[in-house]
Amino acid sequence: MLLLDERQDVHLLMTNCIKNDLNHSTQYVQGLALCTLGCMGSSEMCRDLAGEVEKLLKTSNSYLRKKAALCAVHVIRKVPELMEMFLPATKNLLNEKNHGVLHTSVVLLTEMCERSPDMLAHFRKLVPQLVRILKNLIMSGYSPEHDVSGISDPFLQVRILRLLRILGRNDDDSSEAMNDILAQVATNTETSKNVGNAILYETVLTIMDIKSESGLRVLAINILGRFLLNNDKNIRYVALTSLLKTVQTDHNAVQRHRSTIVDCLKDLDVSIKRRAMELSFALVNGNNVRGMMKELLYFLDSCEPEFKADCASGIFLAAEKYAPSKRWHIDTIMRVLTTAGSYVRDDAVPNLIQLITNSVEMHAYTVQRLYKAILGDYSQQPLVQVASWCIGEYGDLLVSGQCEEEEPIQVTEDEVLDILESVLISNMSASVTRGYALTAIMKLSTRFTCTVNRIKKVVSIYGSSIDVELQQRAVEYNALFKKYDHMRPALLERMPVMEKVTTNGPAEIVQTNGETETAVLETKPPPSGLQPANQANDLLDLLGGSDITPVIPTAPTSKPATAGGELLDLLGDLNLTGSPVSAPAPQIAQPPFLLDGLTTQPLFNDIAAGIPSITAYNKNGLKIDFTFERSNTNPSVTVITIQASNSTELEMTDFVFQAAVPKTFQLQLLSPSSSVIPAFNSGTITQVIKVLNPQKQQLRMRIKLTYNHKGSAMQDLAEVNNFPPQSWQ
């Protein structure tokens, strides 16, 4: 029996041998056969020998009955359909005085109830009998045969409690019948020994699993509270695990033991410490959030590294849900970043930036706190990133000393730049952190007045950085200083209030460090505030009316009446006699990089080169050239870059370019680089058009030009039909 199992071929030859032994005249031989079948019997053997097992289950010999009951458990596990065969034999099992038979009978009943709802309903009528047996065990005197540490047969008590838990689950009558005995067990069991604690633990599980009275549930939680004071680590761990399961249904009762639970955070055992941390977060609510966060922040400061990530995430979630004030919320998250900044999740930085941006009244206080937090310490990268972003946004408030919440500090513009430059050159700064710092320095060029030349010098230096990302930012910022300085204040103005969008995972911040990610073809309308409201990003339709559905949206759906891009109809009369719709002020539609869309550089990296350019309009000194680009990733999109030049002796002002395409196309008109075309061909205006042509039809376009020249308002229409085939095929 010790060397064989049901996978061995020889067991096929054993069925008859075991059957003979089951019918043997010696009870020990029969007992050995029952043990063999109960340990290694296959499903075929169980089917063949179930009748003999059932027969022995009805015998008067208690030695055989207890072994037959355990063998029946194995038979039911192997062949569940044989369960009903043992049902008649179970009727008298609970009347047995022998504790061994009682024990195995309860195990058999438990197995049958767990496997069959019908059996569960059938055996619920045995609850009063089980209650009597359990009561007799509690009230009986000393029995040396079954006594363990002064408790009568604790193994049988535990088995009965487990069976009562199954029978009382989701049943009011059964639960009512066992409430009193559970209360007796909970109050009369000795807790000085481990045996009593085992019975109490099973009692608690039974009380929590059935439909028990509220007072009884409080009694069970108090038992677990006493377990937390036990010197045995295993008992404390079991108590914490059980409380964690019940905290949602009996929150107030568990709250009474909050101080004991918090003390477990100081335990040396890491398993107990983790369970205590999880339970502490489950106990946080609006009433105790300040006290609990104080304890958890202390724990975060002193705990092992493997706890810091989970603890920081838990503090973030609890603070977001129960924060009593914006200032407390910001202080708490900053404390976490200061203590365990290297362990926080990736979304901690944008989440804090979003919180700070929306707390308008806290801007001066926050930027001052963050400035002091990173003085000389750049080890916590997320903290440095948030601090760099806030200094870039609110550096003027830091220098002016407008903080009302605490005593303002005296900081000069040069001192602020010293900190950001130190971040740039620090060996501890990651590439992302340096990007934050460089962008912050650039933003300060519109907030500081005395250090603009120093900022230009820093930006120019990093134009040759070996870090490609940093180099690209610096080159773009340097171009902004040299070519588009008149647009710099508008581009670098303060971020608006950010909106938080909910996804399937953690909430994401739409805008983070001032750069907005926009796809070339966005299928979901972005939230309001992503781009300037007066951008001319309308979809124009040649044949349609006023019911146009945007397919390539890059601007908010609700636009002011001043937005350009009116609808033109190629086949109908154009109402051009009235005053034209005013054009939008030149804005930057921020693509993935800051200056994309301002220059004639391609928007796509994978361009099908070789498309010839065309002259779309050339009249009265105004010349409009089209250059084309096609994307390999989406061949249906054609990107047209417009270049408008002026060969006359006077500049053309208030220039507005509008376009329309047939209804089978969809068109997106991005903002121009300027509204003034310099004279004598000394400069050009660039503007980008994206055309979606899913059916690959020949491209046609109607354009409308309005501008002021020599004091007169000029307006003209033209059709462009000479698009090269490579631009639309």
UniProtKB/TrEMBL annotation:
Q: How does the protein's chain sit in the membrane according to the entry?
A: Peripheral membrane protein
Q: Which Pfam families does the record match to this protein?
A: Adaptin_N (PF01602), Alpha_adaptinC2 (PF02883)
Q: What main location does UniProt list?
A: cytoplasm
Listed SUPFAM superfamilies: ARM repeat, Clathrin adaptor appendage domain
Q: Which Gene3D superfamilies match?
A: 2.60.40.1230, Leucine-rich Repeat Variant
Under PANTHER family, the record lists: ADAPTIN, ALPHA/GAMMA/EPSILON
Q: What is this protein called?
A: AP-1 complex subunit gamma
Q: Which gene encodes it?
A: AP1G1
